[in-house]
Task: inverse folding
């Protein structure tokens, strides 16, 4: 005879990730490193933003560059002569706290003040996964269409700042950058939103100032 | 496709618990998935079916209960469920209080992905 039993498990898989994220955060705080999770769609300008920030910011920066398979993003950052750890997720659509935890031993946390974590190009899946960074920045561009923000509310709900990139192209692609800003403000009224063009330099100083402000908080 | 990694963690949690409790077969597993997670229950089931092949979890019934979204409004103090529609736009309800329309709301519930319970069979100690 077999007996039958009902067993409680009560294990939240998302919370399990949050616990690991908390461990990452503790590590950043111990080392005095300000960590930024940079999320954005494919082609929104994540890597270009990092290249610009590395050039323009005085801080010692390192980058974790998440990508499905390629090393293209990591190579672009490498050319800027800052420490970069390429992180291939294989088939996964997002970085998670566990992957970051494993990458951290390869990042010279003692020598840097800011760590940028470039997430996989995706506005959907990363919403479920806290990495332990101090600030999550979401970058979108006008070329994705000016309904991009309202179509992906969860990623903005959980963000700390947002960037609308390529505003110099808004007219050419028939997109309303102000509508995108307004949509983000509707979803999350408290976050700063910067209109930016990495090509013309518009908004770059504002982004740097925001990071400085967050860093000092 | 993060259903695969989630399903993997879910199957691991189940097999782990089953083993610790001396199970020889799992009859049922119950999950709760928040409506705000970026997880599709059909895909989760599909992934679990692949992952549980050849295990004692193979023939169990999988029950996935969707957990509705609950918010707390900073403005009027409303606490409770938001209305959800069948389409993707239901996500927009997180941004709005159903009572006063304010967009400053905290999400109380709807972001979880929990392995709740399993029903197992084990050898009778008296057998």
Result:
């Amino acid at each position: 005879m077999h007996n039958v039993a009902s067993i409680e498990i009560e294990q939240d898989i998302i919370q399990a990730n949050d616990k690991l994220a908390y461990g990452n955060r503790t590590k950043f705080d111990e080392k005095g490193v300000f960590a930024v999770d940079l999320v954005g769609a494919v082609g929104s300008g994540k890597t270009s933003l990092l290249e610009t920030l590395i050039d323009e910011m005085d801080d010692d920066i390192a980058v974790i560059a998440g990508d499905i398979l390629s090393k293209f993003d990591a190579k672009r950052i490498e050319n800027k002569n800052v420490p970069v750890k390429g992180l291939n997720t294989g088939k996964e659509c997002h970085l998670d706290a566990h992957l970051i935890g494993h990458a951290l031993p390869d990042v010279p946390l003692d020598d840097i003040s800011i760590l940028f974590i470039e997430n996989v190009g995706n506005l959907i899946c990363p919403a479920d996964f806290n990495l332990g960074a101090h600030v999550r920045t979401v970058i979108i561009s006008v070329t994705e269409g000016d309904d991009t923000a309202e179509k992906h509310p969860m990623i903005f709900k959980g963000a700390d700042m947002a960037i609308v990139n390529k505003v110099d192209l808004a007219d050419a692609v028939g997109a309303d950058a102000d509508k995108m800003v307004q949509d983000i403000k509707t979803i999350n009224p408290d976050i700063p939103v910067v209109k930016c063009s990495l090509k013309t330099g518009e908004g770059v100083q504002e982004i740097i100032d925001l990071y400085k402000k967050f860093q000092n908080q | 496709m993060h259903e695969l990694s989630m399903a993997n963690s879910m199957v691991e949690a189940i097999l782990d618990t089953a083993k610790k409790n001396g199970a020889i077969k799992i009859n049922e597993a119950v999950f709760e998935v928040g409506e705000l997670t970026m997880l599709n229950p059909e895909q989760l089931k599909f992934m679990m079916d692949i992952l549980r092949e050849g295990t004692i979890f193979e023939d169990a019934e999988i029950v996935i209960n969707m957990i509705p979204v609950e918010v707390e409004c900073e403005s009027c103090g409303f606490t409770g469920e938001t209305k959800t529609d069948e389409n993707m736009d239901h996500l927009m309800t997180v941004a709005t209080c159903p009572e006063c329309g304010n967009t400053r709301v905290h999400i109380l519930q709807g972001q979880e992905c929990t392995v709740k319970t399993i029903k197992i069979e084990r050898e009778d100690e008296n057998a």
Chain B touches chain A at residues 1-2, 4-6, 9-10, 13-14, 17-18, 21, 24-25, 27, 36-39, 88, 91-92, 94-95, 103-104, 107, 111-124, 126-127 (CB under 8 Å).
